[in-house]
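Re: beginner question about structure tokens

> Can someone show what the tokenized structure looks like for a real chain? I only ever see the sequence side.

Sure, here's an example I had lying around. Input first:
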Amino acid sequence: MTRLRGGAAIAVAVLVGVTGCKSEQSKGASGPEDTGGGGPALTATGSLTVKGRAPKTGYSRARFGTAWADTDSNSCDTRDDILKRDLEKVRFTGGSCKVSYGLLEPDPYSGKEITYRRGRSQVDIDHVVALSDAWQKGAKYWDPGKRIALANDPLNLLAVDASTNRGKGDGDAATWLPPNKAYRCTYVAAQVAVKKKYGLWVTAAEQAAMKKVLAGCPDQKLPTGGNPTRAPERFRAR
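And the corresponding structure tokens:
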């Protein structure tokens, strides 16, 4: 199903099931753009490199650049770009960038309807692949431009319920899945897509957890799109 959110066409697959998911599109949670060009996510999972988790030594959010940098040069920061993409009934303040109000109908992680109000928000922008998880699975060795790109790539970003998101922390698929079981196939497929795009590895337990979810929805496509894997030069120099 294709929906228009903030002027952008968002294709969403919400899949139902418990550990498995039958392919069924329904109105609701948005997320990384699925252009229909990606192959089954289950097959892609098997192509990911499997290694152990590296130490978290040296990680900080600053290693991925200034938060919500305007890497796509549209004069709006990344956070507001995602809010515009994922919320319904969006209102703005001071122009067409700063989102002041919107509805998450429903939140993909909890299945609840969440109201966004700027300054007292119950909505987080989640990195589907957590930045600290990425750091321990390859990003530590990247140049700054690639880390900044990952942190601001719409393929890796999703507006979600803040309280549910805080429970995720830096968990991977082996340690955390959305409580909303109907969204798990879509969520895991997005993680696979990001890790494949950026060349991040997975642990054996993580890959097994991904396959367990996706085995129930073997036709689940791999989301595609997002930004280039290197931020513009002006960000790399910082």
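Each token stands for a local structural state, so reading them left to right follows the chain. Helices lie at 41-46, 78-86, 131-135, 144-151, 162-168, 184-198, 204-214, 233-236.
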